Amino acid sequence: MNSTVPFSQPPALPRISRNVLIIGSVLVFHALALWALQSGLVRKAIEIVVPVEMLSEFIEPPKPKPAPPPPPPAPEKKPIVKTKAPILPPTPQPLAIADPTPTPNAPTGATTPQPPAPPIAAPVAVSPPAPPAAPPAPPKIVLPSSDADYLRNPPPTYPAMSKRLNEQGKVLVRVFIGVDGLPEKAELKKSSGYERLDKSAMEYIMKCRFVPGKVNGTPQPMWYEAPVNYVLE
User: Fold this and answer.
1) Most exposed residue of 5, 28, 173, 196, measured as fewest CB within 10 angstroms of its CB?
2) 18 vs 178, which has greater pLDDT?
3) Phi-psi region of 30 (alpha: psi -120 to 50; beta: other; left: phi over 0)
4) Mapped to the 3 state alphabet, what secondary structure does 98-138 carry?
5) 12 Cα distance to chain centroid
6) Helix (H, G, I), strand (E, B) or coil at 64
7) Whole-angstrom Cα distance, residue 230 to residue 64?
8) Distance between CA 96 and CA 111 in Å, rounded?
C-alpha cells in the first residue's frame, strides 16, 4: 500500500494595503523634490524655460513705418495792386479884399473864386489818306484777221444755181480760229436768206487762213465773225 504524504503549502505573505502604497508614493515624491531643490536642478530648469518664454513674448514683428505727412499747401500769391497817386486839385487863387479906396495903379486880385482852367488837348496828327490803287490796265486784245496779203485766200465761189436764180446777200459766219491761224469749227451767225449761199459761205470760211488773235501780244485761240458777200454784177 502506497502511503500518501500530505502537501505542505508555503507560508502566506503579509498583504500590503492600498493606503500604505499611496502614502509611500507621496513620501517618495516629496523626498525626490526636496533632493532636487537642494541639488539645484529645479533652478536650472527655470533658467532654461523662462528666457525662452520671455523671448517669445518680446520678439514681435516690426511695425510698419507711418506714411510721411502730406506737404503743406503752397501759400497763395496775392496780386499786387498798384495804387495810383491821388490827383490833387488845382491851387485856388488868392482872393482880394474889396477896398473902396484902392491905391492908384495897385494890382487887383480876383474877388470871386475862379474855376480851374480846362485841360488843353494835345493835337492829334492825322495822316493823309492813302491814294487809291490804280486799276489794272485792261488786256490788249487784237482780233483775228483775213486781210493779210501773205494769206492768199481765194475769193468765195458763187453757186451757179444761185446766179441763175439771182440769189444774193450777205452771210455772217462765226468761226473759231486756233493759234496757228487755221479755222477749227464754224457756225452760221446770220443767214443771207438762201440756204445755198449760207452753205457755200461756211465751206469757204473753213478753207481760209487767218492771222490769229492776240492778247497782250501773245497768240490766243478765239472766236471771229467773218462776213461773206454774194453780189451779182
Assistant:
1) 5
2) 178
3) alpha
4) CCCCCCCCCCCCECCCCCCCCCCCCCCCCCCCCCCCCCCCC
5) 123
6) coil
7) 122
8) 5
Q: Which helix (H) or strand (E) holds 25?
A: helix 18-39
Is pLDDT larger for residue 133 or for residue 54?
133
Helix axes 41-58, 18-39, angle to 10 degrees: 70
What architecture is the 141-230 domain classified under in CATH? 2-Layer Sandwich (3.30)
What is the spatial distance between Cα 171 and Cα 191, in angstroms, rounded to a whole number?
Answer: 5
| Grid coordinates given for 16 | 500590503
Give Cα separations from 38 to 27, 42, 69, 118, 199 (angstroms).
17, 9, 61, 125, 160
189: three-class secondary structure by DSSP:
strand
Alpha-carbon distances, residue 86 vs 48, 60, 82, 91, 120 (angstroms)? 93, 75, 12, 15, 20
Q: Which amino acid is at 4?
A: T
| Tens of pLDDT, residues 140-189 | 999 998 887 788 898 999 999 999 999 999 999 999 999 999 999 999 99
